[in-house]
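#lab-general

N.A. 3:47 PM
ok so I finally got the sequence cleaned up, no stray characters, all 377 residues accounted for. can someone with queue access submit it? mine expired

B.Y. 3:52 PM
send it over

N.A. 3:53 PM
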Amino acid sequence: MNFESLLSEMFSKVIFQLYKEYDYICYLYKIKLTKPMITIEDLTSEWGSWNPTFKTIRLSRKLITEYPWNVVIQVLKHEMAHQIVTQLYQSDSGHDSLFQQACETIAVLPRFRKAKLNFDDLAAKEDFPNLSSEDQVMLRKVEKLLNLAQSVNEHEAYLAMQKVQEIYQKYNIENIQKKNNELYESFFINFNRKVVPSTYQFIFALIQNHFFVNIIYGEMYDYLNQESYKSVEIIGKKSNIKMAEYVFYFLKDKIEKLWLEYQKNGNISAKYKLSFQKGVIEGFHSKLEKQNRKNEQNIKQNIESEEFNLPMLLKEEMTYLNNYTKKLYPKLSTKSSGSGSVYSDFYSDGKTAGKKIILNKPIAEEKSGVSYLPGKI
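B.Y. 4:20 PM
back already:
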């Protein structure tokens, strides 16, 4: 079989997957459309198009081969929105209010609603470089403190980490008070695995509890391997997503290192690894809870207002985030991250180790601005 034949067969499978995605979008948002012909072509001036005469959605080959599947889905949704305008609204308009209404119907992300989608708009390594000046100021403050948090003096490091938590929490609360209308974003982590490790699930549960984001488990199609792998979508405001992303990679690497040290020092069997690592995450969770309660008390004391109701503000913010998440996924179901059975002694040792974790060095300042240093899956 020559290369062109192999490529043709590969794209045939991709098109089959696109039809599955198309059907799922219709099911998810309860819309009835005539199923179009979907093709992949060498488009040079557009990412996709909808042809109402031939009832065809065309997608760019470059889009399929060079961008993540979540980007492909958004471009597919963009063209489906045009189809909605044609078939359901009986209009031939372009990117006007009817098109925006159609985008709302199937939750097309705002940056994918433009008439022309620039390559940069679809950045495959979506890294949110255009953080607001306020976000950058907050993150630079955090950077300086996190340098202190690497101190060999445990007391100094702990105080620095407490201050980081306080600044981060205060920053979010101030934004909530201002009714900051910053748009929510999505960031995807693809695991290239069929199953999400249970330790990762525990880390994400902790992240959702402490970092003003929602975590959605799903699957992402890999056109090269013709397989769908587990993925996680982090939904929230840009600065919160970046902090959540860092915390995930930090804890993922940290629990592995702590286990290797623990195993080496005690010659411990590998069967106790999961119990120990779950304990580490629970210990770190309890440490964050304690810090957050203290930070909230400090914030309350520093804000002179009879109308200030912190629990109500936080609840209101999470309501906005949850409503946005529900709009993206109207048939969303919840996933439990219960501890399951563990070996109590090793879980307890892990919990003790987790309480000693100091969250340090998520970002590094460069001349061009702020960059982040997450690890890898």
